Each structure stands twice: as C-alpha cells, then as structure tokens.
Amino acid sequence: MTLRMIHGYFNEKGCITPAGGTFSAGWQSPSNIALVKYWGKKEGQVPMNPSLSMTLSKAVTRTKLSASPGGEPAGLISVNREADHPFVPKMKVLLEQLVPVIPCLSGLAIRAETENTFPHSAGIASSASGMSAFALCLLDIAVQMTHTKPSPCEWDAMASEASRMGSGSACRSVYGGFALWGKTNLVPSSGDDHAVDVSRGVHPVFLSMHDAILIVSSGKKQVSSTIGHGTMPGHPYLEGRIRQANVNTGVLLRALAGGDFEQVASVSENEALSLHALLMTAMPPIILVKPATMEIINRVQEARKGGMPVFFTLDAGANVHVLYPKDAAGPVEHFINEVLVSFCEDGRVIYDECGPGPVKLGMDLEKVPQ
Ligand code: PMV
C-alpha cells in the first residue's frame, strides 16, 4: 500500500453527490529546491534516500478544478480547455493512482485550469508546484464530497502523500519553510509515504533565505528526471550515494538548526555536485552542466572564500540556484548583476526566496481570506 494515510482516511467514507452539482477547488502551490537531493527511487515512488528542501515563494502554480459527478467521459478531460495539453498525461497518472483509495474521485468529469508564475523553460521544477497544486485540488474535492474535515496534520500528510504520486519532489512542496522526505532515524516522524515539516528546528536566518535562479539554458532538459532516477539501480556508486545522503541530511539538519551558514553551504554544494557526478558516471552518461554553469560555480565559491555569504545548488539541469541570507541581499545581488549575469542566457535571473507553502484559492484564482 503506497497511499496509507489517504487509504486510512477515506476508507469506507461514502460520498455525497448532489444531482447535477459541480464541485470545485482552487490551490496555489510553490516549487521547492532540494539541498539534499532525492535521487533514485523504488517501486511505488519510494525514495532511495532522504531529501531536504526549501520551499520557494514566487515560483508557484495556480490550479483550479471543476468536477462533475456522472460526467461522460470520466477522468481528467482538459487542462486549460485543451484535451492534449502537455500536463494531461502526468496529471492523469496521479488521478488514476488516487481513484482506488478515494473512490469518490471515480466517475467525475474533471476540468483543470492552471497557470505558472514562472516560465516553463526556466529550469524551475514545475512538476513540484504543478503536481502538488493538482493533488491539493483533488483532495479538496474529495473532502467536499465526503463531508469530512481532516485535521491540519491529516490534511498536510494526505496532501503530501497524494503529491508524491505525481512527482516525488512535489511531496515536499505542501509545507512552507523546510521539508524532509524519506525515512531517517534523525527525524522520528519522517517516512517514505509523505514529507514532514522540519521548519520548527530551523534557525530564522534560513527561513528568509533568498534564492536567485540563474538561467544558463532555458531549453528543454535533455533527460527527464524519470530517466535520471532510473540510472540509480545498478549504479556503481549507489551504496555510497545512499550513505552520503543520510550523512548529509544529519549534517544539514544540525547546521540549519544552529544557523551555521558555512556548513549549510558546503553540504548543499556537495549534494549538487554529487547529483551531477552520479549523472555523469551513469551508463550511458548524462551531462547536463554547461560551461557557463561551471563559470558561475567557480565565481560563487571564490566569492564565499572572500567572505561573501553565498552558495550554489543545482537541479538536474544547467541552471544555477544561488542562495544567500536576506541580510546579504544588497552585496550578493550586486555581485550577481556585475559578475554572474554575464553567464546567463539573455541575462535572465529569477529572484525568489523561502516561502510559506500552498494557499487555498477562490475560483477567480485569488487568495481566499482566512
Ligand atoms: O520529483 P522528480 O521525480 O522530478 O525528481 C526530482 C529530482 C531532483 O530535482 C533532481 C532532486 C530533488 O530532490 O528535487
């Protein structure tokens, strides 16, 4: 059973479907950037190692769903009124995983409207924000149909569990601040089914950390993360990688708690470079970094050696996330503009920061006052 929380909650809960009624839900959900990387998975979207991420603030997906019981045909019908929108296949997979554990969702004709605040090609994980926004909407509709009210803890765990089935990293986006996914003895509440919020143990300096995303290449990624994860079983460095991620998770949690910027910087950079080392040493090799990626990395490391509080991380792509404390935004952003922007495609930088997590929206996609 890969959806334990959701199964436990919705099991045997009947749904109330008013004749001719339509259910609707809207959610905004952010992307996140992993400092300890999830890399490699087992069947059922189970991670091979724990991962730890910072939730972003401005890079969000806004999604609204309308669902009509007894509609023909049932299932996800369109995204932005297009039946063949590129999101449809991935969203359909998520819906198909949820229907057996939330029977209410079967037989619904679902239409989705969705928008990203960031360009698709920006190298920001749109699957994390997109899949979590969709999962939150589906869960919201299921709760309406069953006339139930999960506790905030139940809601978060179920939203994370559902998001995970769409995209592993999406399960961390349902929490603001910092989230951990994957079983580790370091955090007793952790598990593989859903992420947990670890922000309470994080020093305030990191809860307002900034992330400038330097766009080196906006072209479509050569290799999808699914193919990337698929290189890990049988990878010659697999065992070492799992050990390293577990050690790095512990070091990072302690450094985040203690406000130790230097340690957070070195662990995060080690994780980013390890991810790309694993990609490069896969068979066949996958090389995603570009010369400009390395130029930026070198300069960020030199700047830190010179006393500037700044570090980098990478996703599975060429773009570079440059992280720094809010207090240092003046000098670091000056450095980005003067030195790093010249390595970016068309000088593109997206400025983001640590954020508060998902927000419930009205049908006009405006924030619902709490
Ligand atoms: O969630 P996926 O399957 O797109 O995998 C994401 C993998 C990385 O972005 C490279 C790392 C991570 O933990 O987000």
Name of the CATH architecture of the largest domain: 2-Layer Sandwich
Q: Would you tell me the structural class of the helices and strands? A: alpha+beta
What is the number of helices?
A: 10
Highest CATH level, the class of the largest domain: Alpha Beta
Count of domain modules: 2
Q: State the end-to-end CA separation.
A: 35 Å
Which small-molecule species are bound to the chains here?
A: (3R)-3-hydroxy-3-methyl-5-(phosphonooxy)pentanoic acid
Q: What fold name goes in the CATH topology slot of the largest domain?
A: Ribosomal Protein S5, domain 2
Multimerization state: single chain
The poorly predicted ranges are: none
Provide mean pLDDT, rounded. Answer: 93
Number of strands: 13
Helix content: 25-40%
Largest sheet: 7 strands, mixed
Q: What is the beta-strand fraction?
A: 15-25%
Order of secondary-structure elements: HEEEEEHEHHEEHEHHHHEEHEE
Shape: globular
Radius of gyration using CA atoms only: 20 Å
Describe this entry's structure for a reader.
The model has no long low-confidence stretch (mean pLDDT 93). The strands form three sheets. Strands 1, 4, 5, 6, 7, 8 and 13 form a seven-stranded mixed beta sheet that branches. A four-stranded antiparallel beta sheet has the order 10-11-9-12. A two-stranded antiparallel ribbon has the order 2-3. Strand 10 and strand 11 (320-324) form a beta hairpin. The protein folds into two domains: 4-199 and 356-360, 2-Layer Sandwich (Ribosomal Protein S5, domain 2); 204-353, 2-Layer Sandwich (Alpha-Beta Plaits). By secondary structure, it is an alpha+beta fold. Helix 2 (88-98) crosses helix 4 and helix 7 (238-258) packs antiparallel against helix 8 (261-280). Helix content is 36%, strand content 21%. It has helices at residues 4-10, 88-98, 126-146, 152-166, 204-207, 225-230, 238-258, 261-280, 291-305, 329-340, and strands at residues 23-36, 41-42, 46-47, 51-69, 75-79, 108-116, 178-181, 196-197, 210-214, 311-314, 320-324, 349-353, 359-361. The longest helix has 21 residues, at 126-146. It contains ten helices and 13 strands. The site of (3R)-3-hydroxy-3-methyl-5-(phosphonooxy)pentanoic acid has 13 residues, from loops.
